[in-house]
Specification:
Strand content: over 45%
Order of helices and strands: EEEEEEEEEEE
Distance between the termini: 40 Å
Helix content: under 10%
Mean pLDDT: 96
Oligomer: single chain
Length: about 120
């Protein structure tokens, strides 16, 4: 059974940091790209970052470049999103998904990130 479970969200002040985790089960990261997406209230879901099947290529939304870093730990079958210098506009529910296209085949349940003073 394929599952993706996010954790690590929370409330943080502007300029702060959070690390999101996406624990995968039912499949191995060796064979799939993993994406992080987010959806803010009243806005469409957008792709934030992606790590390729090989792990050698990454993608970032322009607004998070230089602040967010995606990585993975094959042994733990987990993908991470390190988020630094967070801004109020980063506030959203963050989801990880199997695949980086507009329609990944599996999604996690999401974790709330709120950036506010």
């Amino acid at each position: 059974q394929v599952q993706l479970v996010e954790s690590g969200g929370g409330l943080v002040q502007p300029g702060g940091s959070l690390r999101l985790s996406c624990a995968a089960s039912g499949f191995t990261l060796h064979y799939y790209a993993i994406g992080w997406f987010r959806q803010a209230p009243g806005k469409e879901r957008e792709g934030v970052s992606c790590i390729s099947i090989s792990g050698g290529s990454t993608y970032y939304l322009d607004s998070v470049k230089g602040r967010f870093t995606i990585s993975r730990d094959i042994a733990k079958n987990t993908v991470y999103l390190q988020m630094n210098n967070l801004k109020p506009e980063d506030t959203a529910v963050y989801y990880c998904a199997r695949g980086c296209t507009r329609h990944p085949d599996y999604w996690g349940q999401g974790t709330q990130v709120t950036v506010s003073s």
